[in-house]
Amino acid sequence: MVFQDNGRRQRRSRVCRLAVAAASGVVVVVASACGTTTPATGAPTTAAPPPTAASAAKPTTAAAPTTAAAATTAPAPTAAAKPTAAAPTAAAPAPTVAAAAAVAKPGGMPAWCGPKQITLSVSDGFGGNNWRRITSGEAKAEASLCPSVTNYVYTDGQGDVQKSISDLNGLAAQGVQAMVVFPDAGPAMLPAIRAAYQAGSVVVPYRVDPGGKAGTDFNTYISTDFCADAKLMANWLVKALPNGGNVVYLGGPAGNSQSTTRSQCLHQVLDPTNIKLIGQQPFEVTNWDPAVTQQVITADLAKFPQIDGWATDFGAAFASSLPAFQQANRKVGVVAAEDSNAFACASQDPANGFPIMTVTSQNWMSRTAVDFAVAFATGGTPPASPVVQNEQFEDSLANPPKVVCDKSMPSDAIMSSHLSKEEQRAALGE
Length: 430
Fold this sequence. Notes:
alpha/beta; six-stranded mixed sheet
């Protein structure tokens, strides 16, 4: 397989440089780099017509960005789609949907891998943090399981909506047969997604809802239940703050469906007479960028004299922002987040530690998007459901506590990832 990387920035996020101290005896659980290509010129290759809506797995309510993530009517994924907590001595990554299907064909080839040879692209709206590097590493590892994927192209929109749109337009013009898209800008990306789909490419957006309709604008949308995540976080905050308090929710880019849905469901659980969500509503905008996250936290600490807890989409970015608390001479409080090694280890610092709860960061969700896109483009069998369920990963207040800090791994590693240690280090550029 040929690997191409268009627009991947070489800078490392501030998360990579975070130095954290951890108490002795902390639980340690053992849970790609690409070259550069020049876009092709000339007439685009005619791609095979995309599958019809009837042949695609039914998407969740994709047309409504604020509710699509809930996915209450879609069938639940198999148990293999969920990550499992790794045993302290386990070196192999947790099983994935694709791994569960790998025995479906002779020779161990996954069922979603059909016979037709294709080029697969994976496009991020923003690829400049550790979460994205690991997530794109998961996608690359999944694609490598299918020999029919003869060329793999990665593009990074670098947080620029126009560049993200241009990336998709360029891929479609080159005749790329299968496109996996993380549409950070939500509905702003829909025209480019629709144009690629109508030009003949298989297009599978995931995690952030672009709006639109399967069979008209794209093949299927890979969703997760962000409301369930938020309710897990909210119920833990109730447990962690028995006397109530003020909580700030740190989301991603303005208007994104993930943070919007989580905010709605945090509000559903948290009683404002007991635990009040303060700060910008529906969420503090951080763009899932560690530098912006620290700016937002610094501003909130200056604005609000009492902050008892935090909920955040991005635990690693929160960990990189901890110096803001020391500079303000403030306690961190309790924090519910998505997992990261830096976040877990920082929580165990003997002097400045704090209670945590995490759900998995779901980097492995990109594998499901790859499975669907490759299945539709190569003639394989797609997974049973486009809905990827999440689960709780850590709880420092549980009995016994569970905190997954692995000092043998980089601070920007994510221990719920399905990549092996070696694969994760490679994805992070270590």
